[in-house]
Amino acid sequence: DSQSRQQQFLQKVGQGIQDSNSMVVDVSAEFQGQKKAQFVATVAVAYSPVSTKSRFLMFAEKNPANSNKQGKMYVAAETSMPITSAMNFKQALNADSTSYLNAELAFDDAKVQIKSKMMQSQARRQYVERHPLTQKCMQQMQQGNTVQYACRSVIMRANAMDHYKTSVHFEKIPDFWKNATYKAYAA
Q: Is 162 left (phi over 0), alpha (psi -120 to 50) or beta?
C-alpha cells in the first residue's frame, strides 16, 4: 500500500539524524491491456545541516504484463560525512574529512553490500597548502575577505578526497549481472 509505505519510509529515513530534512516520493504506473502491468517506486532521502549523517531508501516493484516474474528491489544507503568549513580555509584544511558510505541492495534473491571509506592523504593536504591560490587566499583572509574566488577555490580543494577504499560483498547474483560487472571491470 502506497500510503503506508510512504509513512514508513518517511519515519525510517530520518531516524537518528538530528534536525533532519526528510522527503519521500512515491510513483506508480499501471497499464491496462489484455494483461495488466504495474510499476511502483518509492524513494526517501534525509539530510541535515547539523548532522554528519544522511540516508537514502528506495523500493521498486514491477509486475510486467508479458511475464509472470514479479520483481522487487530494495536499496538502503547511509553516509557519514563531517561538517567542514565552507568559509574558513585553515579550518577546512585542518579538519578530518574522512567519510563513510554503507549501502545494501537486494533484488530477487540477490544481495549486495557496499562499504566505502573516503579520505584525504597527507600528500593532498600538502598540495593544497602549496597551491598558488593558497597564498592569495591567506592575503584575502587577513583583509577579512573569505568568500573571494581564491578562498572559495582552495576551500573546495581542501575538502576534496583523494583516497577511496571500497569493499563489495554479494550473494546469489544472477549470471547476467556477474558478466556485466566483469565486462565493465575489464574495460
A: alpha
Residue 90 CB contacts under 8 Å (≥ 6 apart), including other chains: 141
C-alpha cell at 55: 540516508
Q: Is the pTM of this model over 0.90?
A: no
How far CA 39 is from CA of 25, 30, 42, 45, in Å, comes to 14, 6, 11, 20
79 in helix, strand or coil? strand
DSSP-derived 3-state class of residue 147: coil
Cβ(150)–Cβ(137) below 8 Å: yes
pLDDT tens track for 3-32: 999 999 999 999 999 999 999 999 999 999
Question: Do residues 114 and 101 touch, judged by C-beta distance below 8 A?
Answer: yes
Roughly how many angstroms between the first and final C-alpha of the chain, as a whole number?
42
Contact 80, 47 (CB under 8 A): no
| Backbone phi and psi for residue 64, each to the nearest 5 degrees, phi listed first | -70, 150
CB 120 within 8 A of CB 165: no
pLDDT given for residue 14 in this prediction: 96
DSSP 156-185: HHHT---EEEEEEEEES--HHHHHHHHHHH
Rounded Cα distance between 115 and 55, Å, is 14
For residue 64, what is the DSSP state? Answer: -
Phi, psi of 13 (to 5 degrees): -65, -30
Match 583516497 to its residue by C-alpha cell. Answer: 163
